[in-house]
Amino acid sequence: MAKQVVTRTYTASIRNQSQVQDDLDALGFAASKLWNVGRWTCSRIWDEIGHIPTHTELTAYLKSHERYDDLHSQSSQRVLQELAEAFNGWYGKLQNGDTRANPPGYRKHGDEHPRSTVTFKSAGFKLDTQYNRVRLSQGSNLKEYWSDFILCKFQTRPDVDLSTVENVQQVKVVWTGDEWELRFVCKVEIDVSGPPDEQTVGIDLGINNFAALAYEDGHSELYPLNCLKQDDYYFSKRLARCDDSNSEQATRLNQKKSSRRTHYFHTLSKHIVQRCVEGGVGTIVIGDLSGIREAKNWGKHGNLDLHSWAFDRFTKLLTYKAEMEGITVEEVSERGTSKSCSCCGRKRGANRVERGLYVCDECGTTANADVNGAENIRQKVSPSSPNLSVNRSNGWLAQPSTFLFDNETGAFAPQEQVTS
Hints:
- Helix content is 37%, strand content 25%.
- The chain is an alpha+beta fold.
- It folds into two domains: 2-192, no CATH class; 199-417, 2-Layer Sandwich (Nucleotidyltransferase, domain 5).
- It has a seven-stranded antiparallel beta sheet with strand order 2-6-7-1-5-4-3.
- The radius of gyration is 25 Å and the shape is globular.
- The two termini are 44 Å apart.
């Protein structure tokens, strides 16, 4: 049985909730206040010079602010990092024409600051796995004495033993709506079923087909985006009828839409990994889409679809599930994969005659354009043998299997098997 180190997050209840709640409340409120200070600072800089400060710039600028010392320095850095990431995500959408995008807001309900999540990195906590206790550092402003800290007694699930993990990288304190709980982000050594097989599969993420897969053994699959587009259309109409975008009804609709999307990503990643296990795949090669929002303008509707994707989110879910099966996930650049012929290597943009069709003017290969891209992505890690490349022309490249998401069963099935 092979071993592999992966990242896991374990939830734990706090057994001495009544003793530590006031102190944790103070930290949660402090995190919200620091977020609001950073939010105001970003807005002011944006209004004056049109520049959104990076995480590093924002941290350097606010280090001397009194709110920065309400938390441990690493916890304050994490709050400002989350804010910078939120602003960059919004600005990327704005640049590509998504007029519905809103900048990150202030964390405040009337005169009340909500309890924000507080993250403690290595220097901000000390873990005692023998007695199930964790010591959390406070900011200097909240300490009465220099040695003050919050001591939480915790309880994990019976099947979780933190003393056996490789290391605990972070501790997060999260308000659930009723009480505080702990989340331990750990490096864990797990057993996998054996050494990975030699087979590879390439995955191309796209606008019409969320995923196109090209397997080394000679078959391909498409996963259309239909159900997510239907959800976008349905929820957009329902939200348009709401009197206020911040109303309870609008909030419930957005939460339901987000929940359905999360289920889709979990189900798809699980399905793909299971297909890889069944097909003896040891390596998944997926296109790296970081920066794609800034790299190209896809048109008004294309940009809206593009920004409804969760590139990083899906890739992380896929990686997480693949690791459990001993399958490696590699990200590679997508540069040139949509223009090149996966059979002969001819590179010509005009060969992609329309969105779903690729016809090579050199070797005559006719292929589904997304599958051709997926095969090019796969070949960046595992080039094909000459014989296999020749046999691909006008075969499975042009006629992939299509899997649709069935809303009734909540699972994927071949197109002809999905009931209406």
